[in-house]
Hints:
The complex is a heterodimer.
Chain A: E1 7-13, E2 16-22, H1 28-35, E3 54-57, E4 60-63, E5 76-78, H2 91-98, H3 108-121, H4 127-134, H5 145-160
Parallel strand pairs in A: 1-5
Antiparallel strand pairs in A: 1-2, 3-4, 3-5
Helix pairs in contact in A: 2-5, 4-5
Chain B: E1 7-9, H1 14-24, E2 28-31, H2 37-42, E3 50-53, E4 63-66, E5 69-73, H3 78-82, H4 85-90, H5 92-98, H6 104-107, H7 112-118, H8 124-131, E6 135-140, E7 143-148, H9 149-152, E8 153-155, E9 158-159, E10 166-173, E11 180-186, E12 196-205, E13 208-217, H10 227-236, H11 240-253, H12 264-285
Parallel strand pairs in B: 1-3, 2-3
Antiparallel strand pairs in B: 4-5, 5-10, 6-7, 6-10, 8-9, 11-12, 12-13
Helix pairs in contact in B: 10-11, 11-12
Amino acid sequence: xxSGEHAxxxxxxxxxxxxxxxxxxxxxxxxxxxxxGLTGTHVGCEHGICGACTILVDGEAMRSCLMLAVQADxxxxxxxxxxxxxxxLHPLQEAFREHHGLxxxxxxxxxxxxxxxxxxxxxxxxxxQIREGISAVxxxxxxxxxxxxxxxxxxPVLKTS
Amino acid sequence: xxxAKFDYFAPASVDDALALLTRYGGEAKILAGGQSLVPLLxxxxxxxxALIDINRIPELAYIRPHDGEVRIxxxxxxxxxxxxxxIAERIPLLTEATRWVGHLPxxxxxxxxxxxxxxxxxxxxPAVLTALAGSVVARGPKGERIIAADEFFQTxxxxxxxxxxxxxxxxxxxxxxxxxxxxxxxxxxxxxxALVGIAAVIxxxxxxxxxxxxxxxxxxxxxxxxxxxxEILERDGLGDAAIEAAAxxxxxxxxxxxxxxxxxxxxxxxxxxxxxxxxxxxxxKGNRG
Lengths: 161, 289
């Protein structure tokens, strides 16, 4: 399609079928925020370094600033809005609250989805592995200690749930 | 909108992608995992007339054993490679190097073909391809050709792929049975681009080194086989003195640049230190021979 044409994007977000139209050059993160109105996913550096925009695409953590919206046509996304159920925080969110895993909250959506994918691939991680896993997302407030504690605390809960 | 306007295509076959490349005559870019290209688009450092997205070509994603080598489709994700049993068993150097590629969310999307075709001199996969003396398959309008690692990387971000070709497959020879391997890297933060990386494969019989392979990342415009350092090990064996001599030679062989992250002198020093570490660690891994 040429650059002026708009593409039809149909996808599932947090279990709900959604669709929209956008230019092929629109980034997935901007589509999620502006077209779908889900502003929980944050836009930070826009070049894949900070990790704030990390979401799950078909179950795997990816930078939504490094994908075009058209590339997500047919995919199933999970954003931070999809974590809590029926007013109950997700166990990982609960652990972040309990262990002071956030302060300003800017990195938190990306941190949560990164940690969720990390714990799926490493259900019983060492502290060193947690440090390495969350190094995918930059946090400027917490010094990471609270986040590391939160991820460690959530691991056994997620493993059994 | 961050990227400048481009025409967009997501062909379902390599032939369709090749036809589009020809149609745009060098003004189109192939979009693989996008973990290097999309940042360039977002900053408008790259403004291609068209993007040809090859993510919807299923025939390009596979890992297959073939005689003494493993053949990997260009669109195989780094994450898939990281967790692939066949790779861990046959090309463990690739498994280890993959853990240095960005972070898990980058590897979920990034591909082996994209990383090689992008040819960032500080990336890990070019060093692995070089250390193993592997090759890539390029398909163009006239058919396929096989390009050896040492003919593939030309200079910074530049390969010998022509504008009408697509990298479709990566071929890596399996290391000899009992060979040890290691990938050592230093970056300012975990997941950043390497200041310097060293890939090592060492085969031995007792104290004798029957094959040494050493290749760099981040120590010059292209990954470099450190042949003169390899020869020291193959000639003088694997004692501490020979390893130290090989490491000194490695730091003389490289020709790194200075940039905001590290001086050329520091990188040169690192090439020696990491060579020593990589060789010593390789010896702890596969010394069954």
